[in-house]
Automatic annotation (TrEMBL):
One of its GO terms (biological process) is proteolysis involved in protein catabolic process. One of its GO terms (cellular component) is membrane. SUPFAM superfamilies: TPR-like. Residues 48-242 form the Peptidase M48 domain. It comes from the Bacteria. Residues 1-31 form the signal peptide. Its cofactor is Zn(2+). TPR repeats lie at residues 324-357. Keywords: Hydrolase, Metal-binding, Metalloprotease, Protease, Signal, TPR repeat, Zinc. This is Peptidase. GO terms for molecular function: metal ion binding; metalloendopeptidase activity.
Length: 465
């Protein structure tokens, strides 16, 4: 396990969508869209990403999305929510931590898959354009009436013009929100279909909507159901409850092994995002379980004694020697203890055992090899980091470590190009172009590396236009 806060990064490249479709009760406002466009705080973790991919795989198959290249992104946010933009599905860490069962998160994924399979994003963009056009026309008509009223000294006509402008905008807004509510219900129904196809219960979806309803009731807020972009939680429950309960899979529970992985992920998120006291309280509710022991080892690593954390992690490895993430945690502890050679070996074992072939673990081993610092170790670090990047091209921090390693070896051009790549994948195209141009002066013309640098330079030129 790596330090989650360190892995949080802002992703500006995914913030170009005109609008997003989310799970919860929300208003579609310009502030919401602008906040998204400014970047999403993303968490990278091999274990949690593998778990969520396992949740999504059968759902994507049922939805016809298995070959669509959908990427699931974890967002560092405590709220229970998920949303889609482009070919990416974003799931808040708060949703994972609050969901008691895998089935609840699987229901969330199924709902978002309904949006993707239904092409709702493109249709929403079309509706936004239509609403914008309606508002512009209403504004022009209103302005015309105001001008005419002023010219004729007719205060009544001028007042009507103001009402026409504001009223037209409100009609456009309500029309858009009504459309969105319909798409949300369609995504809910699609989710039930996917769950049935995969032999899974829809009970988790009901639990999620009941959670929303409870939160809404406790807030005391009075919500106008015609001024929100999602149906009210109680309406969603009423529309789906009979359909879900009559399914032969209604009482089907998650497997104990999957539940254990889910709990491990929850305790890990709690340890890294909620603080020691909150994580310890959560772990104490599940005494004696392997997941609780894992969570305790994480808390001890973060806030306690490293020797004790290693002892607890070694006990976990003895109980489940084939778990790659126990070895990963051991590597983290050894790195923090200033023992990079042993850490590199622990990460190597995690890589060997990792069925998901995450690109994150080789990069972590590369960091340990960098810390060893010998020429041979640094060369190995370059190889491991490149292996990680082959699997995960958008790992921004990996490019930083690669640039450091290449610099230590005296490979200035390669270091400059790695820095350019890091800027490129973070969306800083102008900075990327500067470093790519510097790399080109030292690279062989028309070589693959030189051509890649040219691609980055061209992107930088496009960004300046």
């Amino acid at each position: 396990m790596t330090n989650l806060p360190v892995k949080v990064r802002s992703v500006s490249r995914v913030g170009k969508a005109l609008a997003t479709l989310s799970l919860g009760v929300a208003m579609l406002t310009s502030a919401c869209v602008q906040g998204f466009a400014q970047g999403v705080p993303v968490v990278r973790d091999a274990e949690i990403e593998a778990l969520v991919r396992d949740y999504s795989r059968p759902i994507f198959n049922a939805a016809g999305l298995s070959k669509a290249g959908i990427q699931i992104v974890l967002v560092n946010d405590r709220s229970f929510n998920a949303f889609v933009a482009g070919r990416r599905m974003f799931i808040n860490t708060g949703a994972l931590m609050q969901a008691d069962t895998p089935n609840e998160i699987i229901g969330v994924i199924a709902h978002e898959a309904g949006h993707l399979a239904g092409g709702h994003q493109q249709r929403l963009r079309d509706q936004l354009e239509r609403a914008k056009t309606m508002a512009i026309i209403a504004g022009l008509l209103g302005a015309g009436a105001i001008v005419a009223g002023g010219a004729s000294d007719n205060r009544g006509l001028a007042g009507a013009g103001i009402g026409l402008a504001t009223g037209g905008s409100e009609v456009a807004r309500r029309s858009l929100l009504s459309y969105q509510r319909g798409e949300e219900m369609a995504a809910d129904r699609s989710a039930i279909t996917y769950l049935d196809k995969t032999g899974q219960s829809g009970k988790g979806m009901l639990t999620t909507f009941q959670r929303f309803q409870s939160a809404l009731s406790l807030s005391g807020a009075r919500v106008d159901p015609y001024r929100v972009s999602h149906p009210m939680p109680q309406d969603r429950i009423s529309n789906l409850q009979t359909l879900i309960q009559k399914s032969p899979n209604y009482n089907k529970a998650d497997s104990p092994a999957l539940q254990q992985r889910h709990d491990m992920a929850r305790f890990k998120i709690a340890a890294y995002t909620q603080g020691q006291a909150a994580a310890s309280r959560m772990i104490a509710k599940n005494p004696g379980t392997l997941a609780a022991k894992y969570g305790d080892a994480q808390v001890t690593y973060l806030y306690g004694n490293l020797r004790s954390a290693q002892s607890k992690t070694d006990a976990l490895i003895a109980a489940q020697p084939g778990n790659p993430y126990f070895h990963e945690l051991r590597g983290d502890i050894l790195m923090k203890a200033g023992r990079p050679k042993e850490a590199a070996a622990a990460y190597g074992k995690a890589i060997q055992l990792d069925p998901a072939k995450s690109g994150l673990l080789p990069v972590m081993q590369g960091q340990a090899l960098l810390a060893i610092g010998t020429p041979d170790a640094v060369k190995q670090a370059v190889a491991q980091i490149n292996k990680g990047l082959e699997r995960d091209r958008e790992n921004i921090s990996a490019y930083r470590h690669l640039a450091q390693a290449q610099g230590m070896l005296g490979n200035v051009a390669e270091a400059e190009l790695a820095t350019a790549e890091g800027h490129y994948y973070s969306g800083a195209y102008k900075d990327a172009a500067i470093f790519a141009a510097r790399a080109q002066t030292r690279l062989k013309p028309n070589s693959p590396a030189w051509m890649r640098a040219q691609d980055i330079i061209n992107q930088g030129k496009s960004a300046r236009r």
